[in-house]
């Protein structure tokens, strides 16, 4: 069973390490700007780093949910590859947002696009499974016959 | 194996689409009220939509965790049905909160109730598994014997 | 299959109950300090409880992701035990943060340490699987031969 999820598991752990990196950046920014918890407001330079981390945290469960459904019901390798592309776009988003609000836009649009591809891949895989399971219709076999 | 999780996977993807809808509503509200990131405060009309999305994001991993444990250890169909009811209550919560703070109350109470049912279902399924696995006591078989 | 994940599932449900407890504390604090949603700012006593819940919510998906990869690819019992230790440290963190900002530090450092151990355990298990799967190298067998 593990050979059907090991790539998804590896991308998941990489994603956790990226989240850890973002959390550390907020801790450094708190020290640099002298903003102690529980305060979350400060100069725009701090608020951009803080919001970049919060946004990444909010998207993380969504990303994992899509990664695993796409990998389990469509193709593990494709889902893991898309997952790596997403993690790269998140890194660019964080670095862009830290520099300026407008520089976050290109990577967030790209990353959201990758998530929509994962949605489509998961939906395709699930549709194929539902048709085969409930209607007895195997589309892949029909197409290749 | 996939036939034991396909309903859970489908509800998971639906839940992701609902979260995507909530994110889009915040983006539209930011444009309408002219509140650019990283700012998160503004008129109550904006803050209600923003907080509705944040609250839904915080509950999303909790919902998924319960959905899957209830589905794996008790009954996939029941867990998926409860999951659909929860997603509906979340939609009503979001729409209610957007209208006024008090209109969020009824759907959030209902949705939290659904989550507690999922907790109970997961706990029942896990208790049954633990008793059978460690004590050798099969309650279902005792009840039907 | 369920006997390979039942301890992980039980710790997951316990973690959900802990999150529910944190959410309730915020609701009580809102009532006590008279801070109605969507407001999130108030006296430091309220903001500390609020931020403790937000921080715990942000870490929850990260914790679950590590718990399951460590449990699936290394050892379920060890991962579940580390998970219980983490949940205890989160409780201490919440109670400490409620009392004062500085009292959150010791438990958050400890809890983060537990997460890093889970990262290491998951990475070890995954590395072992990748080596055996792609290189045909079984380290455990080599060590015990």
TrEMBL record, chains A, B, C:
Its main location: nucleus. Keywords: Membrane, Nucleus, Transmembrane, Transmembrane helix. One of its GO terms (cellular component) is endoplasmic reticulum membrane. The keyword Nucleus applies. It is found in: Nucleus membrane. This is Leukotriene C4 synthase-like. Belongs to the MAPEG family. GO terms for molecular function: glutathione peroxidase activity; glutathione transferase activity; leukotriene-C4 synthase activity. The chain crosses the membrane at residues 7-28, 62-87, 108-131. The gene is LOC106493455. It is a multi-pass membrane protein. It comes from Apteryx mantelli (North Island brown kiwi). InterPro entries: MAPEG, MAPEG-like_dom_sf, Membr-assoc_MAPEG. GO terms for biological process: leukotriene biosynthetic process. Pfam families: MAPEG.
């Amino acid at each position: 069973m593990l050979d059907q999820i090991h790539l998804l598991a590896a991308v998941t752990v990489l994603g956790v390490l990226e989240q850890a990196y973002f959390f550390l950046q907020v801790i450094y920014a708190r020290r640099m700007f002298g903003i102690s918890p529980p305060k979350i407001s400060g100069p725009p330079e701090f608020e951009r780093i803080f919001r970049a981390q919060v946004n990444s945290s909010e998207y993380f469960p969504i990303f994992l949910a899509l990664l695993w459904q796409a990998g389990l019901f469509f193709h593990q390798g494709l889902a893991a590859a898309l997952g790596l592309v997403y993690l790269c776009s998140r890194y660019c988003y964080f670095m862009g947002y830290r520099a300026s609000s407008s520089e976050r836009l290109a990577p967030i649009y790209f990353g959201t696009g990758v998530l929509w591809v994962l949605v489509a891949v998961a939906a395709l895989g699930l549709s194929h499974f539902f048709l085969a399971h409930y209607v007895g219709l195997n589309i892949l076999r029909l197409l290749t016959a």
